[in-house]
Write a structure and sequence with these properties.
The protein has 8 helices and 18 strands. It has 332 residues and is α+β, with helices and mostly antiparallel strands. The longest helix has 28 residues. It starts with a helix and ends with a strand.
Length: 332
């Protein structure tokens, strides 16, 4: 061990030391239990190189004296004095830390990294999960979350990709945060829905009960936090980064968790995406001019074929099965 310490110190004391050499040498002084080995080596080197008549009285002065000897070899005296003043301050702090660590066994340790659990709902399915605090999350088709009960800063933390409905248990001492690619949602005990599919043009948050607060992220800066009240929906357009809040019938946006989908003036383009997720199928619209057709309706227990029959009777379209794909064309 002494040989290894001596090598590290020798590299750090060279006039052409690298940043890595310096960092390794500094690191030695943050290891409680090694200070006496370091002190012996420093003392030997210091006495042999400078012919001191008296030994430094304590570890702090030894450290300062050693660095003073190193800095004597440097040519830039003004910079050296500045370094020496800084080193004196560092030495005092290090000495205190070393001896606290030695006698009180309370050396500083890094906080453990949060443990995250993942869950997903493949296309064609809806998943439910109950968290350790009894909060409930429903995951819509083609969605996934990453969750930690003790996330960063000890909070309850969820990363969402896709769509999820939350019923969060209130805990003032342990905040609940839902992270999306554009904004974070700070939650009190509450029920709300978040739709944040990567392929969608918007992120939509719909509040049923309680209160949520939208907060900035690196991708989206708000002038101030935005409070959303029950019955309101926050819609963020990804392209323009325009955030709007409006009153809505929340059941239209949360009924999917009860295996019921409600469509109100939905265009065929968005409807196709929703059907692909719900049923786990591939749908191709052959005539792009029909994508702007709009549909009102409800899906509950219908199969994909039953629902396509309903759409076909309501809109001027025709569908057929081609291999593993559903093709939709203009019926005219």
């Amino acid at each position: 061990m002494k040989d290894q310490i001596r090598k590290i110190l020798a590299k750090g004391k060279r006039e052409d030391y690298s940043n890595k050499d310096k960092e390794e040498m500094y690191a030695l002084f943050y290891q409680p239990g090694k200070e006496y080995e370091i002190k012996d080596i420093l003392l030997e080197d210091l006495m042999s190189e400078n012919n001191y008549d008296q030994q430094p009285s304590d570890f702090k002065h030894l450290f300062i004296a050693t660095w003073a000897a190193i800095l004597k070899k440097k040519k830039k005296k003004k910079n050296n004095l500045r370094h020496l003043n800084n080193i004196s301050k560092i030495a005092a702090a290090i000495t205190i830390g070393l001896f606290i660590g030695l006698f009180l066994n309370s050396s500083k340790k890094k906080k453990p990294e949060p443990i995250y659990y993942s869950a997903l709902a493949p296309k064609g399915s809806v998943s439910q999960m109950i968290l350790p605090d009894s909060s409930v999350i429903y995951l819509n088709a083609d969605s996934k979350i990453k969750y930690s009960y003790n996330g960063r800063d000890g909070i309850r933390e969820v990363y969402l990709e896709g769509e999820a409905w939350f019923d969060v248990q209130k805990n003032d001492k342990k905040p609940f945060l839902v992270r999306t690619p554009f904004y974070n949602i700070n939650v009190t005990g509450t029920q709300f829905n978040v739709k944040a599919y990567e392929s969608d043009n918007s992120i939509t948050t719909t509040l049923e009960e309680g209160k949520i607060i939208l907060q900035s992220t690196d991708n989206f800066k708000l002038a101030e936090d935005v409070i959303v009240d029950p019955g309101e929906q926050a819609i963020l357009r990804k392209d323009s980064k325009e955030l709007t809040i409006k009153k809505v019938n929340t059941k239209w946006f949360t009924s999917w968790k009860d295996n019921r989908l409600i469509f109100v003036n939905m265009n065929l383009k968005d409807l196709v995406i929703l059907l692909e997720r719900k049923y786990g199928v591939d749908i191709e619209v052959k005539n792009k001019d029909i994508l702007d057709l709009h549909f009102d309706g409800t899906i509950k227990n219908e199969s994909i074929m039953e629902f396509l029959d309903i759409i076909q009777n309501a809109l001027p379209i025709h569908y057929k099965i081609v291999g593993q794909k559903i093709e939709i064309t203009n019926s005219n």
